[in-house]
From TrEMBL:
Keywords: Ribonucleoprotein, Ribosomal protein. This is 30S ribosomal protein S13. GO terms for molecular function: nucleic acid binding. Residues 37-106 form the Integration host factor-like helix-two turn-helix domain. Gene3D superfamilies: 1.10.8.50. InterPro entries: IHF-like_H2TH (IPR055201), IHF_actinobact (IPR047806), Ribosomal_uS13-like_H2TH (IPR010979). It comes from the Bacteria. Pfam families: H2TH_5. It comes from Tessaracoccus rhinocerotis. GO terms for cellular component: ribosome.
């Protein structure tokens, strides 16, 4: 027997609130990557900062790596494979050893 779950009907206020929360989350994640891209924040600092933040912890590791100078698609894939990190892994899903190795690699 299958159970169908009804999609909740949100009021216009609830929809607007959800939209603004989603926009704020996207901006926060983009800001983190921009700080890494411009050198205002190191990869280690970004990982530590994101670990304590529910929104930032949802950034994909590969996207954060690609924000680093001189790290593109190929190099980010090589790094992910060498550290045995799944391509779809997010920061919050990293183990402490993976975080340490990433920090060592870009120290």
């Amino acid at each position: 027997m299958e159970y169908a779950m009804a999609i909740p009907q949100l009021s216009p206020e609830q929809l607007e609130s959800a939209r603004s929360a989603a926009t704020a989350a996207r901006r926060a994640r983009a800001d983190l990557k921009e700080k890494v891209r411009t050198g205002k924040m190191t990869l280690g600092q970004a990982l530590e900062h994101a670990a304590d933040d529910e929104v930032l912890s949802r950034v994909k590791v590969v996207d954060l790596l690609r924000a680093l100078p001189r790290v593109g698609i190929t190099r980010s894939q090589e790094i992910m494979e060498s550290l045995q990190i799944a391509p779809n892994r997010r920061i919050r899903g990293l183990g402490r050893h993976q975080v340490e190795r990433l920090k060592e690699m870009f120290a």
